UniProtKB/TrEMBL annotation:
Any Pfam family the entry gives: D5_N
Domain of life: Bacteria
Organism: Apilactobacillus micheneri
Keywords: ATP-binding, Nucleotide-binding
Name this protein carries in UniProt: SF3 helicase domain-containing protein
Annotated ranges, domain SF3 helicase: 147-279
GO molecular function: ATP binding
SUPFAM superfamilies for this protein: P-loop containing nucleoside triphosphate hydrolases (SSF52540)
Coiled-coil boundaries: none
């Protein structure tokens, strides 16, 4: 398998999972290095369908011993993995996926240069996304707020690169219902791709298996958070700042890794955190 597939480790830490490069253009994970062992087991089974489950597990253990090279994932704001390649913000050009680029998450939407031209911006009965965001940014007196309008576009831009952390969470807060928070989050989900989005509220970050739900995700959305008391926000803080967290799947060995999804949480009144440091 080492002859035909690209493998790496993201660190030398004990228990660290090996990652395999997804070279299948039909796969939603094309161009990524994945540590999804179910995916790796399916590949082993496809190579030799006669292997029993025990044999597949033995091959996996052998691979873990043989893969010793370490390549850390790229955490750069200038390269954005999209559906049809890597968009380079510096050159404004689309580059091909290659095993030399190590990414663990992407967005599903393809880059199409024709939409850089104003006349090609999609309109629905003369309605545009700019119009909707402008309406969403209005204050209580119905006046558009240019700062909020710009901030909404910045949130969309940040959501496109889950491999780079700005060490900040995005909190959408409104004490009034029907404020558009849910629709805005749905826009992000459709832009990034539903399978690239995890759903996790602030108070769920401390649950035992919660961090495994963020593996390979570009965005984490928590809708309608309770505005009560958050006793333990340590994992929440660590994900925001890109620090190492412990990953545990049910019935499997745990390991540590760095997670960098864009974290977006909506509230109808902000909660109170027990841990004030960095919150």
């Amino acid at each position: 398998m080492l002859k035909y597939f690209y493998f790496t480790r993201f660190s030398i830490d004990e228990g660290e999972r090996i990652a395999i490069y997804v070279n299948n253009k039909e796969s939603p994970q094309y161009g990524l290095y994945t540590r999804n062992y179910d995916y790796l087991k399916r590949i082993i089974n496809a190579i030799n369908p006669h292997y029993p489950s025990k044999g597949i597990h033995e091959v996996l253990e052998k691979l873990e011993m043989m893969v010793v090279n370490v390549k850390k994932p790229e955490h750069t704001k200038d390269l954005i993995p999209v559906g049809n390649g890597i968009f380079n913000l510096k050159t404004k050009k689309l580059e091909d996926y290659t095993p030399e680029h190590v990414f663990s998450s992407k967005v599903s939407t393809n880059y199409d240069p024709k939409y850089n031209e104003v006349e090609n911006i999609p309109k629905i009965d003369n309605w545009t996304l700019d119009d909707w965001l402008s309406n969403l940014s209005k204050d209580e007196q119905g006046r558009p707020d240019d700062q909020v309008f710009q901030l909404l576009w910045q949130v969309l831009a940040d959501s496109l690169n889950g491999n780079y952390t700005r060490r900040k969470a995005i909190l959408l807060n409104s004490e009034h219902g029907n404020s558009g928070k849910g629709t805005f989050q749905s826009l992000i989900t459709n832009l990034v791709g539903e399978h690239n989005v995890a759903t996790l509220k602030v108070n769920e970050f401390s649950e035992r298996f919660a961090m495994s739900r963020l593996m390979g995700k570009s965005v984490c959305i928590g809708d309608d958070n309770p505005n009560g008391y958050i006793r333990d926000s340590s994992n929440f803080n660590s994900v925001i700042t890109g620090d190492v967290v412990n990953i545990e799947y049910k019935g499997k060995d745990s390991f540590t890794t760095q997670l960098t999804p864009t974290v977006i949480q909506s509230f109808n009144g902000l909660p109170h955190f027990s841990n004030k440091g960095g919150t």
